[in-house]
Design brief:
InterPro entries: Alkylbase_DNA_Glycosylase/TA (IPR051912), DNA_glycosylase (IPR011257). Keywords: DNA damage, DNA repair. The chain contains 16 helices and seven strands. The strands form two sheets. A five-stranded antiparallel beta sheet has the order 1-5-4-3-2. A two-stranded antiparallel sheet has the order 6-7. It is globular, with a radius of gyration of 20 Å. The relative contact order is 0.13.
Amino acid sequence: MTVIGVVGAGERRWRPSAPLDLTLTLSPHRRGGGDPAWRRTPDGAVWRTSRTPDGPATLRVTENGGEVRGQAWGPGAGWLLEQLPALLGADDDVDGFARLLSGLAGSRSDPATARTAAFVAGIAARSPGLRIGRTLRVFEALVPAVLEQKVVGREAWRAWKWLLRTYGEPAPGPAPSGMLVTPPPEVWMRVPSWDWHRAGAEAVRARTIVNAARHADKLEATGGGGRSAEADRLLRALPGIGVWTSAEVRQRAHGDPDAPSVGDYHLPSIVGWALTGRKTDDAGMLELLEPFRGHRHRVVRLIELTGMRPPARGPRMPARDYRSF
């Protein structure tokens, strides 16, 4: 790590052992268009902000010729650069996934599973740079996940942007205009009811976030590798946090490749359609994903990247603007 001339700033260069697609790997941390905490600039750089254990920081990541360059600013710059390989999936067991697929595709005892595994192997080969990385920041992933509960994405993302613009702080360093750092848990606990309403988040989601903020230290303590199961237990012990929200958090904070988002409005139909040509429900999705246990979330991500969707013949999930209630 080298200093680049600004207090609280640094740079790190890292060469992954396999192809890496920055946008695919980092896009799960983007919460809709115009997310104040995530940006991709025309030069190909991905910017994101984070509230680290050492304070707020801004990270800029680029890749050229197989080498990753990370630049960071702010009190938490050193922490972000130290965690850069983990963020980009350095610990992601892609070789284990390849071995799993090879074994399933070569199975003679279950032709249907073999065909499904061959299909998944094919779509994985089209996205060789996808990695499941981890931020190690649990509460940071929790707030937008709660905002996304039971509403369409654009409603949740609007609430996220409004709250960050109202309570966030400017991103350190030469970040693109408008970038902000999420406030600390103690600030989330002080957001008044009328501002939750202005953001479009009703009382249930507001209470869930405020209560989780009170337990943020315990949640962050699970941020190390291999502690996703512990995080799941702690998260689901909190009121308002179920299996879907826990999975969404652990996918990002823990880089858990086996945390499928059970309870999602669209995913079962998408997975069922891609793997069997028929829609299914959560139970059916889990049955289809069972041969890929250990990598079920990864398989879902790969399926989503294909763009395969069943015909839109049913009712759409309604947009509910809670600001008008």
